[in-house]
Specification:
about 450 residues; mainly alpha; ubiquinone binding; transmembrane; transmembrane helix; NADH_UbQ_OxRdtase; NAD
């Protein structure tokens, strides 16, 4: 883990001191090396390893670190064309902010202390805020940044105070020790205060208002990182905290949270059917999927945890790919409106097939990995309480409807005369699409990589 963190830090230093005209080649080379190093190392983890400096790597944090080091370079590559009109200094600042997010993500997922997890969790706030407010597409990016900051900070203060209270009562905040001996005497109020910050970050329905705004205004790299990785920090923290106070959560909180998330996921799916903005629709889709994921994890069984991990990793890949494809359309039409973008597919021979694969993955169609995770989660939810079967079943149906609706709107109909653009997909865009296909294929062939 120290090797990975040192490599990322070395990349940041190299970008700072390198000539401005060599920035992008250096970044692509270094981040590709980080991708290979991190993927090989994190996917080979089979037992808990706790090296020096209080860093933890296990079967929960390992896949998420692997997802981070895989998608950060892809996000940078997808954003190259959007930065061509900016100065070399602004492009360098953008790259440094993204690499800084990667350091905070790695530290968050590898910290063996809940305080370290909290610091890394909050550390991503400032660089993400700059990405949204500085490189956003419209004037509303300032409002989106304010929503993002206030939702995160207001929910994080109770978490910090609760962690201090727990440390004073138990003299430790170690994740390893909490896995061995959960804190059964903690109050329900402290448990709720701890979890609310991560439920906002996931987010679940009713705590999600910041997410569509942030997604719509963020640049494509910001949207890909936000949906694919930053939202998974909420799920990761939620899993870790359930081990910290298993008894109060299982006794009092889960019975209310599970049906709330199930019905919230259904309502968010219905909201997706009303969206005309492509990025906004994908953002609401993430809220729906993450609501059902939290409902499944709240059952607190090994079956549910395995399903939750598969859903988090698979959704990270699929949502990143959808935002990348949305950006491919946006660069050619300068609009995200679904009805305007229809018909452009006739200029791209392979794009309808790509959209079909990722739309099918988003709706959880077998044998794609989303279906494996959702099967585990739905089984856990229904086994907990048969009443939850109704919103879960309806949520799956609504997800299929809006996923196929997006595919149909974007990949059918004739070209409008005012919307003809002869630009073809370039090698960079083919590479970003391929780098989303590869991990999806790996999960199809070997889902135990993240569910072991």
């Amino acid at each position: 883990m120290l090797t990975l963190l040192s490599t990322i830090l070395a990349t940041i230093i190299t970008v700072i001191i390198a000539p401005k005209n060599k920035t992008w080649p250096i970044v692509v080379a270094f981040t590709s090396f980080i991708l290979i190093l991190g993927t090989i190392w994190t996917t080979s983890i089979s037992i808990t390893q706790n090296p020096t400096w209080g860093l933890l790597i296990d079967n929960i944090s390992g896949p998420l670190i692997g997802l981070s080091v895989w998608l950060i370079p892809v996000a940078l590559m997808a954003n190259i064309s959007n930065l061509q009109t900016n100065s070399a200094e602004e492009s360098r600042n953008f790259i440094l902010l993204v690499l800084l997010i990667l350091i905070f993500l790695t530290f968050t997922f590898s910290s063996n202390s809940f305080i370290g997890l909290f610091l890394g969790f909050e550390g991503t706030l400032i660089p993400t805020l700059f990405l949204i407010t500085r490189w956003g597409a419209q004037q509303e990016r300032i409002e989106a940044g304010l929503y993002f900051v206030f939702y995160t900070l207001i929910s994080s203060l109770p978490l910090f105070l609760s962690l201090l209270y727990i440390y004073k009562a138990n003299n430790h905040l170690s994740i390893n020790l909490s896995l061995i001996n959960s804190l059964g005497s903690i109050s329900n109020t402290a448990a709720v205060f701890c979890m609310i910050a991560f439920l906002v970050k996931v987010p679940i329905f009713s705590l999600h208002l910041w997410l569509p705004k942030a997604h719509v205004e963020a640049p494509v790299a910001g949207s890909m990182i936000l949906a694919a990785i930053l939202l998974k920090m909420g799920g990761y923290g939620f899993i870790r905290l359930t081990s910290l106070f298993y008894l109060p959560f299982n006794t009092n909180i889960s019975s209310m949270l599970i049906p709330f998330c199930c019905w919230g996921g259904l309502l968010t799916g219905l909201i997706c059917l009303t969206q005309s903005d492509l990025k906004s629709l994908i953002a609401y889709s993430s809220v729906s999927h993450m609501s059902f994921m939290i409902a499944g994890i709240s059952v607190l069984t090994s079956w549910a945890f395995a399903g939750g991990m598969v859903v988090m990793i698979a959704h990270g890949i699929v949502s990143s790919a959808l935002f990348c494809l949305a950006n491919t359309f946006y660069e050619r039409t300068s609009t995200r409106t679904l009805i305007v973008s229809r018909g452009i597919k006739s200029m791209f021979a392979t794009l309808p097939l790509v959209w079909l694969v990722f739309a099918a993955a988003n709706m959880g169609l077998p044998p794609l990995p989303n279906s494996v995770g959702e099967t585990f989660i739905i089984s856990a939810i229904v086994s907990h309480n048969i009443i939850n079967f109704l919103p879960t079943l309806l949520g799956v149906a609504v997800t299929a409807i809006f996923s196929l609706t997006v595919y149909q709107l974007l990949n059918s109909g004739a070209n409008q005369k005012w919307n003809i653009n002869a630009t073809k997909i370039n090698e960079r865009e083919y590479t970003t699409i391929a780098l989303h296909f590869l991990p999806l294929l790996a999960l199809i062939l070997s889902p135990e990589i993240v569910a072991s």
